[in-house]
Amino acid sequence: MKALNLLTAIIVEDMPEAMEMLRADLERYCPDVSVVATANSVVTAAKLIRQSMPDIIFLDIALGDGTGFDLLEIFPDLKSNVIFITAFEEHALRAFRFSATDYLLKPIDASMLQKAVDKVRNTRISTRPSLDLLRESIKNPGTLPSRISLYTLDKISIVTISDIVRCEADGNNTWFFMNNGDKMYVTKTLKHFDDMLSDHEFLRVHQSHLVNFSYIFEFSKKDGATLRLKNGHEVPVSVRKKAEIVQLLEKMG
Hints:
This protein is of the alpha/beta class. The protein is built from eight helices and 17 strands.
């Protein structure tokens, strides 16, 4: 039998029981992950990471001598993939979603663990920009994020949400059209971004289209409902969304 292509990992967790449970889950559900070391503090983890440079760091945010972010500050050019372990509440989980950073909620679900490991196996781009955005968002938990991390096929881009004109579905992926004329092909569904951006005045006007309301120039009811945007794009409006759009435009004056 062909040997598995092992991924090396370090677990950084200051609760012994939680650490052993994660190690056991990895052995059972992710046999291609080899835990080469464990640490319960920032200082110990830093030494072990320097020694082994693992493929994955399973990182608890709250540690006895600091935080997981303190550990990441020590390694500005970290190549390892980071999967956070957290018991944070909903307002903080929003920061993870907007930064597109992998995280596992305690108690850890086996299927989510497998998905996180699969993503590491299939991703070969630096996640550092996402980690920086996450730290910034965590520091301001009560503030609506102003930026979002977008995974394209070959890189991670951090963009200002107010610069996004619209999003368009392409199968299970999404095209982002920016105010400066750029466009990006992002490997997430339109529904994923519809859920995230609704508080930023984005509206799903059609099965395949999500629009930033601040870029609407004109709403035409001729030949089927259409939105004309400030960048010149025209977007179809589904029948069931017509009334809602008219109401919103009237409120906006």
